[in-house]
Amino acid sequence: MEWLIIVFILMFVIAPVMWLKPSPQQKRQMALRSSARKQGVTIKMEKPPLHHFRGTMPAYRWHYPQQAPGPDFVLVRDTNASDALELYHSGWRWRIAPLRPLPEKAGVTLKALLERLPQDALVIESTPYSLTLWWWESQNADRFSTYVADFQQLKGALEGVSDRPVAKPFAGGGEAAGRK
Fold first, then answer.
1. Is 35 exposed, middle or buried (0-12, 13-18, 19+ CB in 10 A)?
2. Which residues sit opposite 93 in a β-bridge?
3. Which domain of life is it from (predicted)?
4. 13, 61, 97, 103 - which has most CB atoms within 10 Å?
5. For residue 115, how many other CB atoms are within 10 A of its CB?
């Protein structure tokens, strides 16, 4: 009887520790995020640009250089998009289309990437500041690494293709300086 009480007390003490231990899915996500950060990806939990979406979703972000901003566009997977949106490629629709056509290299890279992305990748968004993938992290770190080079290539092709002109710093001098 004493042994039974001792075992019960030990189980009572060990149980909370077991709850704190990460699950296999949490371990996979931690490894995935760590690997992605090492490859230059910024990861945040944010509200995605989806209509009627509640909560947050992982956003994997590649930043454009400040002097070469990217275009504005949002592509949504067909399963999360309205039929009223314009079809782009391979089950993806424009929620916000770019103002000017994308450069040919960027278009080819983007289409190839859209064909390869996992089904839980729901949105690709480009702003002047970054290129973002919104997805549910279904892949492991090794598999995700196969997409990183494609995203880097796409980011490189979109750098400087901003919808807005880049503001240039005012150069002192010129005519105004000569009028003194």
1. middle
2. 76, 87
3. Bacteria
4. 61
5. 11
CB 107 within 8 A of CB 86: no
Q: Which of 155, 56, 168 is nearest to 103 (CA)?
A: 155
| pTM of the full structure | 0.79
C-alpha to C-alpha distance for 5 and 7, rounded to whole angstroms: 5
Q: At what angle do helices 141-158 and 24-38 cross, to 10 degrees?
A: 30
The mean of the pLDDT values for the chain is 86
Percent of the chain past pLDDT 70, that is, above it, reads 90
Residue type for position 29: Q
Phi, psi of 58 (to 5 degrees): -65, 130
- For 26, 46, 131, the CA distances from 54, given in Å and listed in that order, are 22, 10, 22
